[in-house]
Amino acid sequence: MSRDCKARTRCTKCNGAHSTLMCGVRLEMNIKKEESEAKEGAVGSDKLGDVALLTAKIQVSGSDGTVVIAQVMFDNGADRSYISSKFVRKCKPQWIISAPMPYSSFGGHSTDDYYHDSLIEIDILIGLDFYWTLISPVDAFQINNVVAMKSLFDYVLSGRLYKTNATCTYSVPQSLCISSVSDSDLCKFWDLETVGVKPRELVESYSETKVFKEFESTVKFVNGRYEVALSWKDDSAKEKLLNNDVIAHEGLGRLMLKLEHDKELKKEYKKEFDGYESHHMIEEVPRQDISGVNPVYYMPHGPVVKLSSSSTKIRPVFDASASCYNGVSLNDCLSSGPSLNPDLVEVLIRFRRWSIAVTADIRKAFLQISVQEKDRDVQRFLWPRDDDTIRHMRFTHVPFGNTASPFLLKATIKHHLDKYPPTSVVQDMKANMYTDNWLSGVDFAVEAADKFCEACSILADASMDLTKFVSNSLLITSQLCDKVPFINSDEPNTVLVLKWCNSQDSFSSDGINSNSFVEVVSTKRSILSVIAESFYPLGLISPYVMYGKILFQELWKLGLTWDQEIPSESKLKFQRWLLSSQNLKNYQIDRCYFPQKAWVKLSHMELHGFGDASEKGYGACVHLRVPVENGSYKVSLVSSKSKVAPIKTITLPRLELMASLFVFTISQLCEEYS
């Protein structure tokens, strides 16, 4: 058999001219030599050598002539054949036709019933619709539970293999693992602890980028509001979208089935769409335009319930990342543009200066910007009438959900503010407007009326309304309640991921809901998700978060897979750590550095930085100190940062130097923006 095999692989055990799977198995048979269209054959299996899956490694030629290696698996338990979207993007095949089909997804989650060495990434799955077209049941041979079947790609093997290791008595199940945590995703998570400390990468000015120049050249002011074009990656990106109305109909059917079980949710969800339509934010597609010449894309949608919201408790959320038949989504074609937001830590540091603080946000900010008519057909969605007939709708404004929306919003606000003289209010809005949230304040109550009324007037010129004003000053609230919409509540408000209790003017933490995690925290994946909930940009709870990261690093050193059960001793440590988070509910820190003191009147301020390191990690904190009456001083914590030591051993003096660098960078940041 090995003489006739056209595969160029050799056994990894004995370097023989056969597959590693067949090492130790002798097939006594004669096989007629035939020509095969495949240039390379391979079989997939578990490297522990128990069961061989019916797989082959083939060469696929794309529409542009690019030859790509694909891993194929034959599955006679599947009624259809599939190809992964990742491989579609890699191979770029020629698209022939789209056809509707009912399906239920396979995979989609990971399981702990596998060993790391047994993972095979499948690019193409051949179901029964093509199975017997590619495999011949006649040319099949079986020896020792191993079956060799003739396929279009030469022989493929399957079945239980002969065990050469007598001590191997267990069975290893095979499974496809999907959505594991990539190294890049993990790096992004660990980078969160250096927000405000890690030096910014040198990039070209946003005003010099192609996407920003195109925005400036296409933005218009029409009928009292701004109208923008969607920011496409390139001129041909729009043409890659396929009409996915069949997929959208299926998604709407599932959504309506869900809403039928909750009549109140359905009523409130419909009310939101009615509001959009009455404000001309959405429109029905004219019947003659449903199959128009423009590229068409339908966005799936669903309700998101947020009972803590003071304005919109139920809102529709649209998914522009849903793929068409060719694996391409709207988000794949749009450019996210350069980040126009100020640094998050800088905004929070400045927010703590004022003795009187005020926050506000723009009402339905994205929906206050119109989209040019030529781009509206890629913002379609489906919604039923009262008689259950389907309406084809589309957004006339920018929806929340596509990757270009944040850039279009910030670029529009910047474009609008640049029209005004650089007054203190305009400069404040440019520096402290994070997406649609404005964090500001004043030192004296008499300044408040003019400042906030001017801000409302500026944005009103762009048909944008500042709403949900919150302040720690009852005097400000009472003076301006008839001019701006203030929220009076003793409940903490969320201010850029921080909990701010405005009545006490302090930041607080909810801790982690230990009751919901004590039983399920048993894998690296679930533990990482808990740690991610503890993100605190100013580092005011760094000692608590640091302990969790040290425990996670200990698990990492054990070499466990993402979904493997962790040792009982480690599980007990994490449960104790979670329970200790309840103490954070009693922890509060003043929002203002020095309450009851005007920032402009403070003098002789000093920044004091402290840093230290151990074998497990290093950290730094910076305090602000000012002289007060009677020759005494007041001190306030500005920010702190911590980081686990690298897994590769580093000397303690070097770690202490890294802590000193932390002190320097945090101090620089605080000096510049506080």
Explain this structure.
- The protein has 674 residues and is α+β, with helices and mostly antiparallel strands.
- It folds into 3 domains: 20-160, no CATH class; 194-506, no CATH class; 514-673, no CATH class.
- Helices cover 27% and strands 22% of the residues.
- It has 17 helices and 28 strands.
- The strands form 8 sheets. A 5-stranded antiparallel beta sheet has the order 1-2-9-8-7. Strands 3-4-6-5 form a 4-stranded mixed beta sheet. Strands 19-20-15-21 form a 4-stranded antiparallel beta sheet, sandwiched between helices.
- A hairpin with an 8-residue loop joins β13 (301-305) and β14 (314-318).
- The chain is globular.
Q: Give the overall average pLDDT.
A: 79
> How much helix is in the residues?
25-40%
Radius of gyration: 31 Å
Class per helix and strand makeup = alpha+beta
Uncertain segments: 25-48, 103-118, 163-179
Overall number of domains: 3
Number of helices: 17
Largest sheet: 5 strands, antiparallel
How much β-strand is present in the residues? 15-25%
Query: What is the number of strand segments?
Result: 28
Strand order of the largest sheet: 1-2-9-8-7
Distance between the termini: 76 Å
Q: What global shape is seen?
A: globular
